[in-house]
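User: Second chain of the day. Same drill as before.
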Amino acid sequence: MLQVYTGSGKGKTTAAVGLAIRALGAGMRVYMMQFMKSQAYSEQKILQKFAPALLLDTTGKPFFVAEEGMLDAVSRAKWGDEVVVFPKGKPPADYIRLLDEGLQKVKDAAVGKYDLIILDEINVALFFGLIKRTALEELFDALPGKAEIVCTGRNAPDWLLERANLVTDMQEIKHYYAKGVEARRGIEN
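Assistant: Same format as last time:
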């Protein structure tokens, strides 16, 4: 089965981590690749303690990417060097290469070895053109039919939603970010 957790609301990665815990409790083996993330998130510390039943990898740089026009001047100034802004349809080549290597690592590590494969933030990578549809579909085709696959992140493409067996769209109704509350350790990161 292919599951997709998408939408503007909080909780997509959190739901995937919860599913990983449930799968581990059932004696399953779990592989999780976090795209566009570095080793800076609190869940990573606990998930790594489940090795070898759970293997966690990350690929990405310690900065965010945005297409031109996505950030206003105030936001761009606030992010400073932590964001790379690129023209629409022309993402940084080094970032594309990094995520391609991550996708290959998933293929090398996960094929036939894991029952649950989580591709965290893959939807965002697809949205920015950092990973191509054909590359992800090749991965899907390489994975054994018994593997459960979870794709998380905002802006899941229509083709992925159509291919999925389960889609959860997490919508933001209200969020304290709007009142200036920053990401909190253990809750958002």
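The chain has one domain: 2-60+93-179.

User: Great, on to the next one.
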